[in-house]
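Appendix B. One record, verbatim.
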Amino acid sequence: MILNQETARKVAESLLQIKAIKLQPTDPFTWASGWKSPIYCDNRLTLSYPLIRNYIRSEMAKQIEQQFGKPDVIAGVATGAIALGVLVAEEMGLPFVYVRSKAKEHGKQNQVEGVLEPNQRVVVIEDLISTGGSSLSAVEALRESGAKVLGMMGIFTYDFDISKNNFTDANIELVTLSDYPSLLEQAASTGYITDAETTLLENWRETPDSWGR
């Protein structure tokens, strides 16, 4: 879900400008999953640009309160959303925890790191949502720790149908600052991509697992 179209446009523009998102419809990337993709996204680059970083932080804090109210705790998904989650927690004056991809194999064997009390209300921070698998694994870990997860806030989502279905099945509301349709609209309007490239990029999102083969 996008709450503010102007924010979605501005974030998409920023991600393109700093090359956090690269669009190469005629020279696709290969993801770890083996999928051929005309887009590559690394939102961790936003941390190196103070103006963009601060805008994302303030917009996330604002939209979290708008959509979920003020939670008790902010949680970041390791590793890409740890720094982002800390920024948002600082902006909102809230405690912060982060969630590992799996429990540690030594020490306390924690998966959730930080202080989290039973029944505390948590909003989860992500930098990027693709299928939603790793994001929702973090939600499950928080729930198993006794947290009440209000929802998830992210920078960007590819807006895949499989992702939407996964979040619906997990009963988790996802809000992102920007998304794939907003990105294509911004890229096309500024001449970053041609009409033909826009069509290729739109087709990819419909069948990402078989596109380009």
